[in-house]
Write a structure and sequence with these properties.
alpha/beta; 5-stranded mixed beta sheet
Length: about 260
């Protein structure tokens, strides 16, 4: 069995794979001050609830954009699962040509998502990941990773709005059903929803034009369906794309004698 872990700025996502299918998945909040015991005990508890013996885990793969939590997470995996994890970008690389201007600058999660999308859907391809940040990652005509675009996620924008505009309340991310809001809450929700939809459409059109080819578009991330699911721009919604990518990297590494 493989334990795949995706460490994001908001959540840590875990998935246990037996073959190509995830036997279970769960999330923990990303806390930079979490101890190894807190992480390890919480993770072991999910295994216990699902009646799964964690001794069957053969390898653990981690992709992370939160360096401060990595020491505690690694210690948790060693202490509670008896395995030293492999970290993407450190001791295990993503098997995709990286054409970024400064290759080490690109987030490992972006490379994993691009690789997973390429393996599953072919190329050219654009992966739109809507989480803490919204990222657009492009796989080119030769299957290479080209780069993309990053802009602040919806929640970050809402937090900034309420923090810097004292009369504007915090609101839930939802479709108010109208563009012309009749209350302050409806107005904020309309602006956020339609503003981000417009941004997504414009960026995708611009990438396609610059690429000079019609690329397939895949959506992932916790807010992709809420914000853009109804636009019909995503060929497929893949909520576990990064975790599935870790599983694909694991299989590739085993096939090539790396693991």
């Amino acid at each position: 069995m493989l334990l795949a872990i995706d460490v994001g700025n908001t959540n840590i996502q875990f998935a246990l794979y037996e073959g190509a299918q995830a036997a279970m998945s769960f999330r923990l909040s990303t806390r930079r001050d979490a101890t190894s015991d807190e992480i390890g005990l919480a993770a072991r508890n999910f295994f216990h609830i699902h009646g799964i013996d964690p001794s069957g885990i053969e390898e653990i793969l981690i992709v992370s954009v939160v360096p401060p939590i990595m020491h505690a997470l690694t210690r948790a995996m060693q202490g509670y699962f008896g395995r030293t994890p492999h970290v993407i970008g450190e001791d295990l690389q993503v098997p995709i040509e990286n054409c970024y201007g400064h290759p080490k600058e690109v987030g490992a999660d972006r490379l994993v998502g691009a690789y997973a999308g390429k393996q599953r859907f072919g190329y050219p391809l654009i992966v739109v990941d809507m989480g803490t940040a919204t990222t657009f990652d492009t796989v080119g005509l030769r299957g290479e990773y080209l780069g993309g675009a990053i802009f602040p996620g919806v929640k970050l924008s809402l937090e900034a709005l309420s923090a810097h505009a004292s009369k504007l309340p915090r609101v839930e991310i939802a479709d108010p059903g109208v563009v012309i809001g009749r209350t302050t809450i409806e107005s904020i929700q309309s602006g956020v929803l339609h503003g981000y939809q417009g941004a997504v459409l414009h960026i995708l059109e611009s990438i396609q034009r610059e690429l000079g080819a019609k690329a397939r578009v895949i959506g992932t991330g916790g807010l992709a369906n809420t914000i853009a699911g109804g636009l019909g721009i995503f060929e497929s919604m893949q909520p576990m794309l990064i975790l599935d990518g870790l599983r694909m990297i694991y299989e590739d590494a085993r096939a090539n004698g790396i693991l």
